[in-house]
Amino acid sequence: MLSQESPREVISPEQDQRMLSTPVLCYIFKDKYLPPPIFHRLIAACITRWPVAKKKETSENLIFCGCCIFDVDLFHRLTLYCRSHIVFARITRMVIDEAKIPDTKLCTRVRKFISLNLNKIISYLSQNLKYGLSVQCTSSQGVSDDSKVYFSPMFDIWFAEESHAHDAPITPEHMNHARLCVALVTVCGNAMREVLRTQVPAQHTDIYQAILANKGKLTGRPGRPLLNPSQINVVFPDPQGKKTGTLDQFDISLLYILIRNISAVQAPIITGWGNDPQDQPRDTSLGASVERIRSFRNHITGHSPDAKISRQDLEDYWTKFEAVIRDIEKVIGRQVCSQELDRQKRQVISVYEAC
């Protein structure tokens, strides 16, 4: 690449207010490591697709060390540059008119071209490099060249075609919801399994014997069995009813039914079964913990209107998860899931720190 550093006005131009730029698309490489040859090859790939833009006053090519500007068409310019472990891309509509934003179809095509070639280059040079995709807001001062990335409300301009095809872009709030669902299903689900496994009524040797002994109660209540047909198939896969499914096959809803109806766990003292004991923080019994997990499941997955969780809500839920797991482990007398929850929490924190 050229040795000349890119002038700051190239990265953060003083734009006419009617000349609009997209938010900056950011390819953030994990472990804060981006080998220079990757960016160099990406620039080379772009040169084969679009001509390098020229400075109007001097007609010199706008290509520098770590930065290159391309004329994508007569009306749009692509600025592609690299700082630290992040590759930045911004499209500016160069024509001054009243209300024109950068063409969304063009933005989608450019983003796909960059992503496709970046993936090819990474595959050729190294199998271990990974990156995440985020968006940096464009401020009135231009685009910052530091490594801090801020999520933009105009995120979907880069993904407009997917949005129009009913394939909306994945936002940070969507990712927060996904992380929370993983923790709910794995950590809280395993905590529920451990409760069911350890809280066996005295007359039974293990929980599987208890399930078989209560088959009639679970499946045969006149008009309203405790389990629906799909749950019955999971719990009693054997047509003859002589063996049960394993706890690892039971989801949170099914585990809740079994804990409530055939285990030795007592109902929450004040609120009873079926009620969220959120107003009873002093009730740390197993029954209250089970009800709290059921409530988490309902709010996060069952009743979520848009599958989005803010960062603050993510942190609040994580605190609640930690409290419930701690209460369960205290009653059971040993660690069951707290280490896994800590591991997942560290992963989430590292993602935010990388941004």
Automatic annotation (TrEMBL):
Recorded superkingdom: Eukaryota
Residue stretches making up the DZIP3-like HEPN domain: 213-330
Pfam families in the cross-refs: HEPN_DZIP3 (PF18738)
Name of the featured protein: DZIP3-like HEPN domain-containing protein
Protein species of origin: Sinanodonta woodiana
Lineage: Eukaryota, Metazoa, Spiralia, Lophotrochozoa, Mollusca
